[in-house]
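Researcher: Let's try something more involved. This one mixes different molecule types, so please make sure each is placed in the same coordinate frame as the others.
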Amino acid sequence: MKVSTANRGKLKKGENMQTADQTLDEILTLAAAHFKVPRERLGPDDDFFKTLGIDSLQTLDLLTRLEHHFHVELPDYELQGVSDFRTLASRIQAGCDPDSIPRPPRRAKSGRSWGTIRDTSFPSRVMK
Amino acid sequence: MRTLQEQPRGESHSGHSFRGQAMSWQLKHGTIELALYREPCNELGSLALDELEKFAAALESIQPEAHALIIYSELKCGFCAGADLRELYHGSQGMEKAEALRGVRDFLERIHKVLNTIDAAPLTTIAAVHGVVFGGGFELALACDLIIADKMARFCFPELRLGLIPGFGGIPRLKRDLGNGVVRDLLLTGRSFNATKALQVGLVSQMVGEGEALRAARATAAQLSKFDRQTAIAAKRFIKPIPHEELRQEIDIFCDLFERPAVQAGLKKFVESTEAQPYLP
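Model: All components are placed in one shared frame. Result:
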């Protein structure tokens, strides 16, 4: 699924951390597009189970999409009891903590920049 | 995707094909395709087990004409959500403890026999998975030689959260395939992880785009058809021994744990939960 605005502030390896507001906005945009709910109907403090009308299996689907989108790993137990978008965004922000990301050299010997090296060259972005 | 209304009511057999209430299979161009379609998410209960046993029995006569088996789900939610906990819970209510335990052990023995047949089948077996690949569904995939995962697949052994261990051969087969650290992480935390992580740890052989797992599995099966079958069988026997002793221990441990009141209480909370997210500690 492509979200037209979702890549706007998307984290990439080597880029600066995005703000919590950007993360929240991207979550809302992605959820609205995937579950076909008007974006304006979703608020930061809404209960996403109720607002999106999703069950536990669909929640897992959302979790997987968010992990792929933000390049984070979100263990289920870190999300237990989380039901609003704002708290979800804060958990993702915590998972994106740049200090926890193993950083390779900025420029490889070949002269390629980091961004040209395949993702599989490095460990997962965040392992909590 | 199949809807509930479209599910077949009865069974139909014709030569090398079958259509039941939980699954169908057919032999086509040397590949057997086993499709799962039992709503809500291919839970493995007595109906699915009956049909899996029919499949295992039929496999003997079909396999000489086949070189590959692909197992996949037609449901949008995913490959398989695991054992049918509602049936397990309700089935054991009103029974004497010993009788309920006998029923559980019998179920485990039967499904182990089916999964051992799939594990040892003289074919290359491929699980093409997407969405939820949980518990017993994960164990079904682990019985296969290759797992090809849609990028939206999610793997989990949630059993410990209910006071149990995986009972369909999951731990021995996972141990056979992966480092023990990953096995402990999955088992002891009960957490799920996505296909990217599964690829990193070596659980899946290919990760493909959304909706592409079955196509990729068919392409893989087509490639396998070019190889000498006896060589493929010999290679499989050499590199994929079945951990019979540990599988036997797993059944015993599961049954010991199942007897405890805490398990019954956990199952009750899970089954009777009306929340969007069912109870799991």
